[in-house]
Specification:
By secondary structure, this protein is mainly α. The chain contains nine helices and no strands. Helix 3 packs across helix 8 and helix 6 packs antiparallel against helix 7. The protein starts with 10 loop residues before the first helix and ends in an 11-residue tail after the last helix. The relative contact order is 0.20.
Length: 232
C-alpha cells in the first residue's frame, strides 16, 4: 500500500524542521561559548538558582523528585519502546516507529559527551535536594526529556492524526513535559539555568532531526506496511 499523500513531508515542512533544528543547535553552541566568558545566559545562573532555592517547599521538592524520576533515561526508554511497539503493531514502518527511542539514545550520548568535554561544576552540594553524578553541562535530564517528549509528540502527530489542532496539542504537550523535567532539576538545585536551557536546545535539535529524517526516509520508500488506515 502506498503512503498517503498527507503523510509525506512537504518541502515547506522539511525547511521549517531544518530551520528549527539548526536554531536549537545554534542556541546550544552559543550557551556553550558563554561558559568561557561567563556572559549571556550564564550571568543569570546564580540569581535564578537562588530564586528556586528560596521559593521551594518540601512538597515542591518531592514533586520535583517524582518528575525527575519519570524524566530519567530508564523511564523514558521504557516509554519509547512501548510507543515504538504500538506504532509498529499499527502498521508503521520500524524506522518511524523507533524514532522517539533513537532520538532519546542519540541525545543522551551527545549529552554525555558534552559533559565530559565541558566538565562544568554543579551548584554547591549543600543546595542539592537529590544525589547526582557526572558534570553539569548540559543537563542530561533536560536533554533526554526534550529528545523523547518532543520526538514522541512529533511522531504521534505524524502517524495518528491529520487534524492540525490535535497535532499542535501533541507538540504542546511534548514541550510542556520536557519543560517540567528541566524545571525539576532547578528546583532540586542540581543544575544551573544554562545547563537546563542548553539541554532543551540539544534535545530539541536531535528530536527534530531524527523524526523528520525517519519520516522522509519512510516516505521515500513509498511503501507502508499498514494493514489499516493509521488515522482511525
Amino acid at each position: 500500500m502506498s503512503l498517503r499523500a498527507d503523510v509525506v513531508p512537504s518541502c515547506r515542512t522539511l525547511t521549517i524542521a531544518a530551520t528549527l533544528a539548526a536554531a536549537n543547535l545554534l542556541l546550544f553552541i552559543l550557551i556553550a561559548e558563554d561558559l568561557v566568558d561567563g556572559g549571556g545566559l550564564i550571568s543569570h545562573d546564580q540569581a535564578v538558582l537562588r530564586w528556586f532555592v528560596d521559593h521551594r517547599t518540601d512538597r515542591l521538592i518531592n514533586a520535583a523528585k517524582l518528575v525527575s524520576t519519570i524524566g530519567s533515561f530508564v523511564s523514558l526508554t521504557i516509554l519509547a519502546v512501548l510507543i515504538g511497539i504500538w506504532l509498529w503493531r499499527r502498521g508503521w514502518q520500524p524506522g518511524l516507529a523507533v524514532a522517539p527511542l533513537a532520538a532519546l539514545v542519540l541525545a543522551s550520548l551527545a549529552s554525555t559527551a558534552a559533559k565530559a568535554l565541558f566538565n562544568r561544576d554543579r551548584p554547591p552540594v549543600a543546595l542539592h535536594a537529590t544525589t547526582v553524578t557526572l558534570a553539569a553541562f548540559p543537563s542530561g535530564h533536560a536533554t533526554d526529556a526534550a529528545a523523547f517528549f518532543v520526538g514522541a509528540s512529533l511522531t504521534l502527530a505524524i502517524t495518528t492524526t491529520r487534524r492540525r489542532w490535535i497535532q499542535a496539542l501533541f507538540v504542546a504537550a511534548g514541550l510542556t513535559l520536557a519543560a517540567l523535567v528541566g524545571l525539576s532539576r532547578l528546583v532540586l538545585a542540581v543544575h544551573w539555568l544554562s545547563d537546563v536551557v542548553a539541554g532543551w536546545a540539544l534535545g530539541n535539535a536531535v528530536a527534530i532531526s531524527v523524526v523528520v529524517t525517519a519520516w522522509r526516509l519512510t516516505a521515500r520508500r513509498g511503501v507502508s506496511t499498514a494493514t489499516h488506515d493509521p488515522y482511525l
